[in-house]
Write a structure and sequence with these properties.
alpha/beta, Rossmann fold, 5-stranded parallel sheet, two-stranded parallel sheet, 12 helices, about 40% helix, SGNH hydrolase-type esterase domain-containing protein, lipid metabolism, hydrolase activity, acting on ester bonds, signal
Length: about 375
């Protein structure tokens, strides 16, 4: 039987599908805490760590709360945008499907979550890193049922991974005096405990295909507005900052070791401590006017632990390093993201995806209406 040119083309296309399987798109899988949460906690109805309130999200999209614990974008949002990667939706987003995962990846980050399961227990509901990895395992099962195992393996190995936790393990665990970790460990042994746990978690992710992974370091967490206002002097809590420096040194060493011992692993440590410390110490050098108090606050009543509808907003959100008592502003997140991109030499994965612009600060709404 003689085949027409049209029939030959169809057969070749079908053969290509049979041999190549699903065409993988490079996406991100993000594991983290409130600095990376894009909406998971808004679906955890009993969680006390929640950003589903005005004025969160005021400089993002339609200006309505979207689950991000800031006025605009997260550092992971901005880095992903500039690398040409799609923004992964929250795991608990009701619109999440296998097709959405294949196109955009998933964000498992949860406000209040930590490397340790016990961290942030008083928030009632939050995803620890172990829980987030367990959810990722379920995601893999979904994708394997959608496409064949070989294509799924390729998809997960080509993806990019971000792990950004640790500050809650100190601020909402070790330093509180509430949890047993506070008296069970000293500074050095607690960091050893964190590193042993993180190593186990990263090995689990490697076993599930994570090959290109970045762990974000800790910023000077003793200088967040909450830590300052709780100090007697109003200055940074140096003990807390020293813990961040020690954590970063240990995590960097761990990532170097894992990159050299795990097969095909490219594990990077993103240390932003110095640049954030510089911004906090010399805000005017970077175009900021305030680096010690939150843009969104409850007047003189501090600390108001979250930004609420009755809060008063600063006049120019782009001039504040901190959005609320815990979290940086969009402007600060953009600066940190750009410094990490420069320091680590990130290349665009898909140059056709243009980065989103930084949101412009709109006139501050009157909380009284």
């Amino acid at each position: 039987m003689k085949l027409s040119s049209r029939q030959l083309i169809i057969i070749l296309i079908l053969l290509g599908i049979a041999t190549d399987g699903y065409h993988c798109k490079v996406v991100q899988f993000i594991f983290g805490d409130s600095l990376s949460d894009v909406g998971n906690n808004r679906y955890l109805t009993r969680s006390l760590a929640n950003a589903n309130l005005p004025w969160y999200g005021i400089d993002f999209g339609n200006g309505m709360p979207n689950g991000r614990f800031t006025n605009g974008r997260t550092v992971a949002d901005i880095i992903g945008d500039k690398m040409g990667l799609p923004r992964p939706p929250a795991f608990l987003d009701p619109s999440l499907t296998e097709d959405v995962i294949l196109e955009n990846g998933v964000n498992y980050a949860s406000g209040g979550g930590g490397i340790l399961n016990e961290t942030g227990g008083y928030f009632i509901q939050r995803f620890s890193l172990y829980k987030q990895i367990d959810l990722f395992r379920g995601t893999q099962d979904l994708i394997k049922s959608k496409i064949d195992n070989e294509a799924a393996e390729k998809f997960f190995q080509e993806a990019r991974y971000v792990v950004a936790l640790g500050s809650n393990d100190f601020i909402n665990n070790y330093l509180t005096g509430v949890y047993s970790d506070s008296w069970k460990y000293n500074d050095a042994t607690f960091i050893d405990y964190l590193m042993e746990t993180l190593e186990d978690q990263l090995k689990m992710l490697h076993g599930m295909g994570a090959r290109q992974l970045m762990v974000f370091g800790l910023a000077p967490m003793g200088c967040i507005p909450l830590q300052r206002v709780l100090s007697t002097s109003g200055g940074c809590q140096e003990k807390t900052n020293k813990l961040a420096v020690s954590f970063n040194a240990a995590a960097s060493k761990l990532l170097d070791k894992m990159s050299s011992t795990l097969a095909n692993a490219s594990y990077t440590f993103g240390d932003n401590y110095d640049v954030v410390n510089d911004v906090i110490t010399n805000p005017s050098k970077f175009g900021f006017e305030n680096s010690d108090s939150p843009c969104c606050s409850f007047g003189r009543i501090r600390p108001a632990l979250t930004c609420i509808p009755a809060s008063i907003l600063c006049k120019d959100r782009s001039k504040y390093v901190f959005w609320d008592e815990y979290h940086p502003s969009d402007a600060a997140n953009e600066l940190v993201a750009n410094e990490l991109i420069k320091k680590l030499g990130f290349l665009q994965v898909d140059p056709t995806n243009s980065p989103s612009p930084a949101p412009a600060s709109e006139p501050t709404p009157d909380p009284e209406g």
